[in-house]
């Protein structure tokens, strides 16, 4: 089986641990992890590198919400190398009331 392409967009660094737990559920398969962030968060980057040593981490301009970083990743990989793609991103629930 080909590896799974995983894109993780971390906008809210305090929510990273929840996504890390999700990622650990699929590491029984080979994954190619691409992490995008809009600014450096050393503690998150350190944890990613310790847990997923082959992860590719990119700091990108804050535009396009989570879609622009996803398109960035898609433009930097050969999709024929993967059978599956997983896209995860931090989300915050803002109650308007």
Q: Round the Cα radius of gyration to an integer and report it.
A: 13 Å
Structural class: alpha/beta
Strand content: 15-25%
Individual helix count: 3
Helix content: 25-40%
Note poorly predicted spans.
none
Mean pLDDT: 92
Using the alpha-carbon principal axes, give the shape: globular
Summarize this structure as a short list of keywords or feature phrases.
4-stranded parallel sheet, 3 helices, 25% strand
Structure description:
It is a single chain. Helices cover 29% and strands 25% of the residues. The chain is α/β, with parallel strands linked by helices and 97 residues long. Helix 2 links the parallel strand 2 (31-37) and strand 3. The longest helix has 10 residues, at 42-51. The N and C termini lie far apart (48 Å).
Concise account of the structure shown:
The chain has about 100 residues and is of the alpha/beta class.
How is the secondary structure organized here?
Elements: E1 4-10, H1 16-24, E2 31-37, H2 42-51, E3 56-59, H3 67-75, E4 84-89
Parallel strand pairs: 1-2, 1-4, 2-3
């Amino acid at each position: 089986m080909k590896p799974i392409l995983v894109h993780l967009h971390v906008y809210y660094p305090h929510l990273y641990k929840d996504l890390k737990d999700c990622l650990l559920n699929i590491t029984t398969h080979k994954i190619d992890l691409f992490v995008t962030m809009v600014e450096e968060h050393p503690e998150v980057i350190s944890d990613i590198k310790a847990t997923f040593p082959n992860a590719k981490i990119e700091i990108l301009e804050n535009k396009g919400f989570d879609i622009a970083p996803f398109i960035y990743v898609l433009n930097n990989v050969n999709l024929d190398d993967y059978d599956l793609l997983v896209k995860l991103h931090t989300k915050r629930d803002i109650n308007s009331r």
